[in-house]
Every structure is written in C-alpha cells, then in structure tokens.
Fold this sequence. Notes:
Layout: E1 2-3, E2 31-42, E3 45-51, E4 59-64, E5 79-82, E6 88-91, H1 93-99, H2 112-120, E7 123-128, E8 135-140, E9 146-152, H3 162-192, E10 208-209, E11 217-218, E12 227-230, E13 236-241, E14 244-249, E15 252-257, E16 267-272, E17 275-279, H4 281-287
Parallel strand pairs: 1-13
Antiparallel strand pairs: 2-3, 2-5, 3-4, 5-6, 7-8, 8-9, 10-11, 12-16, 13-14, 14-15, 16-17
Amino acid sequence: MTEQSREAGSSSVLIHLSSIMDWFKSHKQVQAGIIRAVEHEDDSGMEVIIAHPDVDDLNLAFTLTPEMIARYKPKPGDYVVLYDNDYLSISPKEAFESGYRSLQGTQNKISKSHIDRLVSSLRFEFARVGDTTVTGCWAFLPDGFKVGYGESSCVDPERFSFETGCHHAKERCIQDATNKLWELEGYLLKVTGTDSSVMPTSISKLPEPSPERDGFMVYKSKPTERTAYQIRESDMLHVVTDNKKRINIGGVDYEFVHHEPVGVGDFICFLSDDDIYHVRKEVMAERNYL
Length: 290
C-alpha cells in the first residue's frame, strides 16, 4: 500500500511495515485482572477497580497511567495484563478472552455478585387474586423465564391495600427468586463447569445494570452484517484532513474517517454515504467472520 504525502509535489512513498513482517503465534503465559469498575480519570491517569479472582468482596484500586490509556480507554469487563517482564497493558475483553484461557481450571463456585446481577435484572408482575386480600408477585428474567413467586394477604378486607400487598409480596418473591437462581446456577455449574455469565445462551445476553451509572442497563449487541473493503498493498490513500482519507474502490472515490493509522489488511466499512469509516483488521476479526 502506498500513501500520498501531505506535502505538495512530494513523490515519497511509505511502505507499510506489515509487508516485511512474518506471522507469529503466542505461547506465553500472562497474569491478568478483570476491571470491575472505572472510578475516575484526570491528568494523572484513570483509576480502576480490579476484581480478585477468588474473593468476591476483595477488590484493588489501581491507577492506569496516561500512556496506558492513550490508545484505548478501558471499560468494565476489560483486562489489565501483566507480562513476565513487568510490562502492563490494557486488553479489551473480547480480544483477551479469544486469545487466553484461565489456568485455574473449571469454575468451582457461583459468585454472589453474579446472582445479584441476575436478581437486579428481574421484571415483576403483580395481581390481586379475585376479590380476596391476596396479592401475588411473579419474577421473570428479561427473556421471560419465571424464577420466583411471592404473595401477601391480610385478615381484614377493609384494611386491604394493593400497594402494601405488592410491597410485601415482592419482598417474598425476591427471596424465592434468589433461592431459585442459586439452585439453577448451581446445577448449570455442576453439569457444564461454569455459570450462565459465560455461557452462549440467552442468559448471557441479558442486559445488566451499568456498574458506572445508576438506573442504566448495559445491553449486548445483536449479530449484524457489515459491508466492507479490505485494503490491499496496491491501494493509493490520499490525505484529505487529519482524520480523513480518500481511496478508490471499483472506480469510485470514497472518503473515510479514521482515528488510528491505516494499514494493509485493515477494512473500510460502508454504513451509508455519510458514514464510511476505518476498522483495524484485528478489531474486524473480533466482530466478524473473515
């Protein structure tokens, strides 16, 4: 791939480094910690909370330097990776888990934090049983699976309050759902070696409470198709602005936005005439079948 220089009249050509590199497969072992939460960011860096692998309530506050987050700012679920030469880096969740597996073997317990996440995702429905003083509450996971029931009643019909009944019924429903979730997750762990948080099932796709913003939920992406062109060695890239280049594909000039260096093997994704953007090959491989 060649790239036109910004300097008018210049005929200099840049040869992309990847064209003279060989391929290597990693066999190294690393230590890594999951980022539980991002606390704050300032000129000194970004403070994150790293989860202990075995103790749910034991976390470590750690400050990532500005150099570590210059290229990529981590989010909860990503990893802080420590190499054997004491080099620290940040790895997105998908990239790390596709390249490394834990050496601790299969999971041997259900974490309370996982059950709490499932409980916080529950949807509740209430109903009064006919003209009685009984109020029922049902708990459903976001996919509609019922996991709990609770009810409340009073002796004197004159003192019946649907609102009060819902409150007490919900308390008992949550307890029933919590017990049921422990039972279901325990059985899943017994037969598969893991809980639903990492299983390729509908449960793993459920929205979860945002660890950063109260009231918000984190939603998983649905599968999608992308229209893209993979950059070749012979392609000419013309500089338009600091973060925009032009490329000719099939006899048509396209201007695309980029925020990182553009290299051979990377992709130009076409979303619309006004939304054409650069995606690194590694990122494209994480999100699509190549």
